[in-house]
TrEMBL record:
It comes from the Bacteria. SUPFAM superfamilies: C-terminal effector domain of the bipartite response regulators, CheY-like. It comes from Saccharothrix coeruleofusca. The modification 4-aspartylphosphate is found at D36. GO terms for biological process: phosphorelay signal transduction system; regulation of DNA-templated transcription. Keywords: DNA-binding, Phosphoprotein, Transcription, Transcription regulation. Residues 1-107 form the Response regulatory domain. Residues 127-197 form the HTH luxR-type domain. The keyword Magnesium does not apply. This is DNA-binding response regulator.
Amino acid sequence: MGLLQRFGHTVVASVGDPDALLEAVPPGSADIVVTDVRMPPTFTDEGMQAALKLRRAQPGLPVLVLSQYVEQTYAAELLDSDRGAGIGYLLKDRVGDVAQFADAVSRVAEGGTVIDPEVVRQLVSQTKQPLDRLTPRELEVLGLMAEGRANGAIAAAMFVSEAAVAKHIASILTKLDLPQGKDTHRRVLAVLAYLRDPRTR
């Protein structure tokens, strides 16, 4: 809580169970919800289920979920909610990197998508189709996209131009057969191509 306040966020509620979480977030009361996957009473997936309920009740409500381990099914459920806008899934280890965690909170609150790099690495290593259509360079770009990076940040990380990144992304979206449309978050659908493959569950 103190960490969020240090970076200019106002914490309107701090709760310890899923029922209290649902009650603490009436429509329009929060810019982002940060929750653990595991909450009382069973410490399995109560926090995730509460987050999904909030997303169903308030489409587009930014939610950042923290997990001790990579749980790809939970990540897939979260990304599937409301086309994946304004969502984040991070391992708790990332909270130790204060600047990285603060950046993730801000990006999710602004409607972005942030997926933990370890989730991306596991998915890339396990998934064969349709990702086998992509070149190694395109897989690298897709991995950075799944981490929530914009084209400029991808270009900087790969030491290429933004035009080159845009070309790679266009190729990725074409090879993954993602539908076009102004209301479709094609970048998020590219991440879902990882998570929906049964071999990643």
